[in-house]
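Changelog-linked ticket: NAI example.
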Amino acid sequence: MPFNQNKLKVLLLENIHPVAADRLRQEGFDVKTEKAAYSEAQLLEAVKEFDVIGIRSKTQITAKVLEKSERILTFGAFCIGTNQIETEIANKRGIPVFNAPYSNTRSVAELVIAEIIALARNLGDKSMKAHQGVWDKSATGSYEVRGKTVGIVGYGHIGSQVSVLAEALGLSVIFFDVLKKLPLGNATQAEVLEDVLRMADFVTLHVPETPETTKLIGKRQLSLMKKGSFLINASRGSVVIIEDLVAALKNGDIAGAALDVFPYEPKGGDEPFKSELQGLPNVILTPHIGGSTEEAQEAIGREVSEALTRFIKVGSTFGTVNFPKVDLPVRQGADRILNIHRNEPGVLRDINKIVSDLGANITAQFLATDSNIGYLVIDMERTQAKLAVEQINKLKTNIRTRILY
Ligand code: NAI
């Protein structure tokens, strides 16, 4: 399929940050923006008219939409999660999906730092009382954070940022991670989770949701925490057993908690939020806003639009959630064939035969595979690429093939 990337039509739904449309227009693409999400019926029309569609969390890219997405080159998820897209089906149809998992790292880390101080000073309750006309000036149970210890569970993108910011405030940092990590600053890595629980004044959770992290913090772990310490969870709701936390708070085993994520979260603003933690003293509850800042939205807009552009213009799939990853150099003079094929024995032999029968001069070749598909990139001399693609398209293992001129 000859392909002119500059005439590409891009649809951006759900009020994606304007920086995305600006950048894509700068690349020469024809960009249409919409404030709302699209229904399945609207998407079934849109996939006939557009080459790229960007969504956030409300638009559902279903199997039915993907079945009709012959024209679609790629979907951009301008958010963190990609549950709203049938990514496995997209993979089998040769459509990479890009997202921006780390654009809001700093926003989450800043919220956690704010919560460390807020918990130490009983800020939530003091503010609520002042709103209600109560002048509670007592210093009892209020502390500086300087010189205290923060225990970070999960020293990845967010955990390590919290580490840097916490040290700047004069906190000591101890962390636990299943992987050996390079400690930043003066932080130290603990051998086991229990050491972090025993030593920290503030335990903050930054693990992903996995079978191992589900119910990671329950009665036993809470009982190991220092009396008067605090728990912060801005990771995933499944990580903490809420009833055990409620018991630990009511017994006074720990002095407070801040939670941004919950085992069940309301689907939208119309649904009331209910939690056994409501009404408990020194418990800060926030509606999963760790990553919700203007800066994070802008960073997502920038990051995803750049990844989409790299895929469209260069063929790079670095940053996809559902595709073999190839980070490609800009091509030098040659045409570039981008071939997505079913990962079956003999595919490369067939493609290489086509190329060698043409006597084509290959200047570079890259391959990455997963269990379903292979992504093969071949740079070759101009006239030959077109002839090769005509034949590659006829192979029964071919899913889609395009040329970058
Ligand atoms: P990441 O993947 O960069 O880091 C996770 C770290 O946890 C890795 O170092 C990993 O080795 C470690 N880990 C995995 N299993 C572990 C275990 N059983 N015990 C100890 N360590 C373990 O992830 P990132 O970006 O730092 O995100 C962390 C969490 O924050 C995720 O659950 C993510 O969903 C959540 N998040 C929450 C947001 C919010 O709005 N509250 C926004 C963004 C992310």
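Closing comment: Example verified and attached. The radius of gyration is 26 Å. The longest helix spans residues 294-313.
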